[in-house]
Amino acid sequence: MNIITKSGQKKVLSWNVIKLKDNNGKTTGIICSGEDITPRKIAEEELKHANDYLNLLIRIAPIATIVLDREQNIVTANEKAMDLLGYANDEIIGNPISTIISNNELLEFTDKNDLSIELLKKDGECIDANIATSAIMDNNNHKGLIVTLQDISELRGLLIAPSIEENTERKDTLELEGSYTYIQDSGDLNASYDIFSTMVKQGRPGLCITRENPAKIRSKYNITKTPIIWLTKTKTSEYPSIDPTELFKLHPTIENFIKKVNDGIVLIDGLEYLILENDLKSVIKFMEQTNDTIMVSDSRLILQIDPLIFDTKDHHLLKRWMRSLTDEDTYND
Question: Which residue of 141, 146, 153, 251 shows the fewest CB atoms closer than 10 Å?
């Protein structure tokens, strides 16, 4: 029962009624007692709002997420999870988690990251997944478990097969010392591509990562076999592509390529696009990781940037360990 006190406060009362009876069982009166349960009702309402907000976050999360009850039955699955596993919502809700784990194991009610597990899709396909779990507690008891799922193949980047240009040109040789990252920050876009195309036509395995349309790059520089990765949000079957928001895929893609080749060359053009979709610190960290990979190989990397988009401090932070392609003694032809 809701009441309003003399001071104007709203209260919620819980009433108990006891009948008073005489020796013959006849009701002679009642005793009514009321308990103020306002704090409990407020707590319940706040908990409901918190649960609704959590469910909303799970539904719109950009990563596959499921929620289990204390018996490890699936009670919530967002669209990403259903896409990953191949189920419709009504097909997966209520099922035990063991039905989507290939060895039928249950998960521990604990907070864990970077667990590797094999998931079983509806069509019977098994996929290696990286999962993280977060326990939902209620008065120190296990109430449920939030589980995020990621297909490991999507975390590893692209597997690019090296390919050598058929019509190699060896008359005018050009040399860039291996194990170094070179920066072209003069604003001359053609210079980086000219060097890259010349070196792959000399027979070196190359990888181009670009914001430009790969078809135009191939046509302009007569590159026919060298793999080109397109930095774009538009997926295409003609060229391998990486969404600029998936920065985490770039380093493993480059690393995998570098491990497959000897005396290779990588060109990155589109750092400005990556910075638009990610924070500058993350992009610089990606370049640091990539430079570490280059330094322990006999390959080299060319980074093409527009210096006008950086302030002076960030520009120097980015290029402090790189060699400049504008220096006359950097390369010999």
Answer: 141
